[in-house]
Amino acid sequence: MELGLHGKNALVTGGTKGLGKAVCELLAQEGANIVAVSRHGDEGEALAAVLRKTYGVRAAGLACDLSGTDRQSAVSAAVDILGPLDILVNSAGIWPQAYVLDMEEADFRRTLDINLVSPFVLCRDFARHLDADSRTGKIVNVVSQAAFCGSTTGHAHYAASKAGLVAFTVSLARELAPRGINVNAVAPGIMDTPMIRAALETRMDYYCKRIPLGRVAEAEEVAYGVVFLCSNKADYLTGITLDATGGMLMR
Q1: pLDDT grade for 196, boundaries at 50, 70 and 90
Q2: Is residue 251 part of a domain?
Q3: Calpha distance 169→159 (Å, rounded)
Q4: 91-150, pLDDT tens digit by residue?
Q5: DSSP tag of 134
Q6: Of the candidates 191, 140, 183, 141, which has an alpha carbon nearest to the alpha carbon of residue 163?
Q7: Is 2 part of any domain?
Q8: Is residue 99 annotated as part of the catalytic site, yes or no?
Q9: Helix (H, G, I), strand (E, B) or coil at 186
Q10: Do residues 200 and 192 lie in contact, with contact meaning Cβ atoms separated by under 8 Å?
C-alpha cells in the first residue's frame, strides 16, 4: 500500500529508542526524511547515518532536553535541517515508579513536564509552523493504555500525564481540523522497549496475563499504527486514539 509519505519531512521525539526508533525506521522505509530528537546527539546521529545509508533519505539527529528550554527551539531547528515539516510524532516520555504515598511532588511535576508539557510545546510550535504557510500536516501523540485504566504498579504520575495528553489531543484536533491538520494518538499497551525492559525481566508473567493476546508487543508492531496515522490513508481521521494494546483496552 502506498502511504504517500515519500519526501515528507518528519520530526520524531524519543526517536533513538524503543517505539520512537521503530517509527523513524518505518517512516524512512516509506521515503520520509527524519529528524530524530534525543537527549544525546551522538545517538541521533548514529541512527540518522543508518537511515541515510539504508533508505537514501535525508536524516539527522537533534540533541534536545525536553525537560528544559531546548524544546522551545526543537521545531525551528528541525526546519533548519529539513525545510518545511509535514509530520510530528511525540514519542518521548518517562516512566518513573513510586506509589502515591511515597511519591515526591517534584517527581510528579517532572513526569507531567516531560510527558505532557513537552508535547504541548512541540504541537503548538509545529501547528504555528504549518499555519504560517497555510499548510496541512499530521500530528501523532503517543499515549498509553494507562491513560484509560490507571496504574496498579506505581505509575500514577505516568497515567495522569498520558490521560492529560489524550484530552489535549482531542482538544487540539478540534482546533486544528479547520486548518487541515490531523491530530491523533496511539495508545500502546506493554512493549518490549528499554523504558520497561527491567520490569519485564522480573515480572513478565504478570504483564502477559494482563494482555488478552498473551504476549508483550514488539515496538515495530505499534509503530505501524503510528506511521499509518502519519500517512495520506488517515486523512479523514482526527481526534482518535488508536488502541495498540493487544486487547487490554478493547474500546
Answers
A1: confident
A2: no
A3: 15
A4: 999 999 999 999 999 999 999 999 999 999 999 999 999 999 999 999 999 999 999 999
A5: T
A6: 141
A7: no
A8: no
A9: strand
A10: yes
CB 50 within 8 A of CB 43: no
User: Which residue's entry shows cell 541521533?
Assistant: 44
Distances in Å between the alpha carbon of 196 and those of 23, 26, 134? 18, 22, 40
Q: CATH number, domain at 207?
A: 3.40.50.720
In the chain, the amino acid numbered 5 is L
Radius of gyration of the chain from its Cα atoms, rounded to whole angstroms: 17
Out of 55, 158, 206, 224, the active site residue is 158
Examine residue 92 and state whether it is found in any structural domain, yes or no: yes
Number of domains in the chain: 1
Residue 116 lies in a domain: yes
Instruction: Tell me the Ramachandran region of residue 14: left when phi exceeds 0, alpha when psi lies from -120 to 50, beta otherwise.
Output: left
Q: Which helix H or strand E contains 80, and what residues bound it? A: helix 74-82
* Global pTM value: 0.96
Over the stretch 230-243, which tens digit does the pLDDT of each residue have?
999 999 999 999 99
Pairing of strands 181-188, 137-142: parallel
Q: What is the pLDDT of residues 29-51, one digit of tens each?
A: 999 999 999 998 789 999 999 99
69 is in which domain, residue-wise?
Answer: 9-244
Task: Determine the pLDDT at residue 207.
Answer: 83
CB 230 within 8 A of CB 12: no
| DSSP states of 104-129 | -HHHHHHHHIIIIIHHHHHHHHHHHH
Which residue in this structure is represented by grid cell 537514501? 56
Query: Could you give the CA distance from residue 203 to residue 208 in angstroms, rounded to a whole number?
Result: 9
Do residues 238 and 183 make contact, with C-beta atoms less than 8 angstroms apart? yes
